[in-house]
Amino acid sequence: MGRRDRAMAMSPYVLIVAGSDSSGGAGIARDIETVSAFGLRSCLALTAITVQTHRQVEHAELVRPELVAGQMRAALDTNAVGAIKIGMLGTAAIIDAVVAVLDDHQTIAVVLDPVLAASSGRLLLDATGRTALKGQLLPLCRLVTPNLPELALLTQSEPARNETEAIHQAGLLVDQGARAVLVKGGHGTGDTSTDILVERGRSPVSFDAPRVNAEMRGTGCMLASAIAANIALGNSLEESLRRSKTYVLDHLLEQTASWRARP
Ligand code: PLP
Predict the structure, then answer these.
(1) According to the model, what pLDDT value does residue 146 have?
(2) Distance from the alpha carbon of residue 174 to the mean position of ligand 1, in angstroms
(3) Ligand 1 centroid, distance to 114 Cα (angstroms)
(4) At a CB cut-off of 8 Å and minimum separation 6, what does 50 contact?
């Protein structure tokens, strides 16, 4: 066993609860890639199989809720799990199953990327699912990471037009039981992409990065997985957010550089 393999064998795992994306643009493939970029291993609970290209979701087949819960329990029984990343859930019934498992493991930090729709348009969680996510799952999570359209849907508001409105909407989620909300500014405008951390009883904290004009899918998956990996490594929430934003930015810059280099 090499030194890297030995270090990984002793490190905590990140449990990824998410759907597959056959294009590789988003979903569980992105999550595993990200967790291993931080030197950690993943264990998995697959929630859905999607047939999708970068342009459309052609089909989504959901995994039975008891099978999702079974995968999670087996992963948690087998490994030292340092954090859990949750992505696509699909239905309220799957959320109920996930919540039942999390109730038994409340000391493990959970990072929730509230996947509501693919950027190509198709809904990946229906309205009943949104209610279950807000009412039951949010209070069990250390952090939820909505983008501006997701935040608007979750708070039944118009998309926030500025930071004041975004902070107000994040505050509504905190009032409904979220411990911490990271509002992602990727769907905003301007030269800077600002993410804002809103936590109960604390002033909002901003994380700035230059805005990169790149249409890359899966950045939400990457950010939430990177945060979960950093928490599993023992970093504070704010340090985890800083490192994760840098990681996603580096990927976006790499991607734009490789597009420019194409003949
Ligand atoms: N498909 C799956 C399985 C996902 O988990 C996600 C996001 O997490 C998406 C699609 C949406 O990704 P995008 O917004 O990049 O299309």
Answers:
(1) 97
(2) 24
(3) 10
(4) 19, 20, 21, 22, 27, 57, 59, 60, 61, 88
